[in-house]
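#struct-help
A.M.: can someone run this one for me? Single chain, 127 residues.
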Amino acid sequence: MSDIQAIAAAIDGYFNLMYDVDDSRFRDVFSDACIVHGIRDGKHTVRSAAEFRDFIRSRPSPASMKSPREEAIISIEQIASDLALAKVRVRAGQTGFIDHLVFHRIDGRWLITTKAFHVAQVFPEGS
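D.P.: on it. Structure tokens below:
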């Protein structure tokens, strides 16, 4: 498997986690030192990996709400042998995000070390 294929597989793991919120896979996707940040409701929010983990598991998963699953890889760029950037689109419930994900290869696995998100769309209830 090429590095780009491995990074794409790591992104697929991210998409699965964002949809079903299977907490047992969180550390397969995110580094323990990850920082998650973005603008939400006009305020800059910053969460550690542990805070983000608590946040996503504190709400119903999109899978449990039978929300549509919408996701796409917009771009992947491998910067160095152990560093990559990805831009993705993902829907979590009623919110559509554009995420910029920084991946580092840590102990042979591509893990997200930074997630910068942008709320791109809020979908009407029931859609």
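A.M.: thanks! The mean pLDDT is 95.
D.P.: also worth noting: Strands lie at 30-40, 43-48, 71-80, 83-92, 95-106, 109-122.
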